[in-house]
Amino acid sequence: MQYYSTNKQSAVADFKEATIKGLAPDNGLYYPENIPVLSKEFISNINSLSKEEIAFTVIKPYVGDIIPEPVLRQIVSETVYFDFPLIKVTDDIFSLELFHGPTLAFKDVGARFMSRCLGHFVTGNDREITVLVATSGDTGGAVASGFLNVEGVNVVILYPSGKVSSVQEQQLTTVGNNICAIEVSGNFDDCQRMVKEAFADKELNDELFLTSANSINVARWLPQQFYYFYAYQQWTDKNNPPVVCVPSGNFGNICAGLVAHISGLPVKHFIAACNANNAVADYLQSGIFNAKPAIATISNAMDVGNPSNFVRILELFQHQYPAIKNVMSGYSITDDTTRQTLKDVYEKYHYLTDPHGAVAFNALQQYLAKHAGDKGIFLETAHPVKFYDVVEPVIQKQVHIPEAIKGIMSRKKESILMTPSYNMLKEYLLS
Ligand SMILES: *Cc1c(COP(=O)(O)O)cnc(C)c1O
After folding, report:
1. pLDDT by residue (tens digit) across 119-170?
2. β-sheet bridge partners, residue 243
3. CA distance 381 to 367
4. 385-401: b (≥16 Cβ within 10 Å) or e
5. 146, 108 Cβ separation under 8 angstroms
6. CATH 3.40.50.1110 fits domain 75-106+221-400
7. Distance of alpha carbon 346 from its chain centroid, rounded?
8. Which of 141, 342, 373, 407 has the highest local Cβ count within 10 Å?
């Protein structure tokens, strides 16, 4: 498989080059030259297949012979080693829980897969690679955990001091070994600017082999298809495929679902559930796309004003608005409605969502109210404990901390404090 840049000004790249580069040199996103079609037998036999077999079959055409089959099988099984249960919430709404991974968010899947691919690509290199990433919360933890102890790769994560939840901070700062957390006395934009300056600094790049673990990387984006297949595997009414609702920010997750669907996965309709950041929801209603400045909300992992992966959705449908509109709808949900939904679902159905899941639940409910006979799945993208500061006041109860992360909460935080100055970052990276 070759990947072209969505800006069409760079040469095509294979899976290895696309993964190492992240962004194409012309600043476009890498996009597969074709979308593979899965066999009908694969879909009709899906209930007899293991998680590992499904993931391997789905990803293999994208990787081709770039990674030897046994290595790719190993990477896949280390990526999907946890559960992806589909939980019934109401008679027609199910939750696909994507928070059973090590950092309790769906980003674990992409981060684990990408880190292992990169680890494979640097094996035998005499030069170590440095992954530099800025996080507003969820990405950092998933990247830290995913890259821990991957040989030949060092990870430097910048996060805004005091602006991530305590669970998220512990996940970033207690990992150690090849993972270093830099605590910036500024906001997320400062962190992102410092990272961008580093990538643009020729002197630094001559000295260090720098790459990013950004969500636009093909090795983070494409494995996100896996759990859409696991949802279908657990869907009992195969004659009436599900409507799938995805809480969306940068639109990588839903775009992976659309790719899975075009490859042959039965899905009746997709819903992009957005918070107040509604650029794509507006586009789906009007056919006109306008990027907007990001607005802060209580579902902050979706606070994206200009979603990077939107261009991949356009590419997937040859820029044909009617075709896109036919397959997906968009909703924008306010913070008030999100809180109310979280509370209602908890009280009526005894199911606790996180704020992102609540946005998706509400959008799905609105859609199903107008489509009698349809049933649906929403993606529960994070464990509610990651957003306890929002969830607890709404339900007036403490959120139970899962065993898996209790250990992290008592570990000692280690971070390097920095003012939002690029020179300090550069000095550190060169030391
Ligand atoms: C990152 C994230 C999202 C948004 O996913 P995109 O692929 O950027 O659309 C939704 N929910 C949670 C909890 C996240 O961390």
Report:
1. 999 988 888 999 999 987 788 999 999 999 999 999 999 999 988 888 889 9
2. 269, 376
3. 20
4. bbbbebbeebbeeebee
5. yes
6. no
7. 25
8. 141
Which atom of ligand 1 sits closest to the CA of residue 253? 7
Round to whole Å and give the CA distance between 404 and 397.
21
In the three-class reduction of DSSP (H, G, I as helix; E, B as strand; rest coil), residue 221 is classed as helix
Region of residue 71 (phi > 0: left; psi between -120 and 50: alpha; otherwise: beta)? alpha
**H/E run at residue 95:** strand 93-97
User: Is the C-beta atom of 103 inside 6 A of ligand 1?
Assistant: no
Closest Cα to residue 133, out of 146, 124, 123?
146
Q: Which residues are catalytic?
A: 107
Nearest partner of 35 among 209, 262, 222, 338, judged by Cα? 262
Does 252 contact ligand 1 (Cβ within 6 A)?
A: yes
Ligand 1 centroid – CA 106 distance (Å): 8
Q: How far is CA 9 from CA 18, 32, 209, 410, in A?
A: 15, 15, 24, 50
**What is the pTM for the complete model shown?**
0.95
* Pairwise CA distance, residues 293 & 401, whole Å: 34
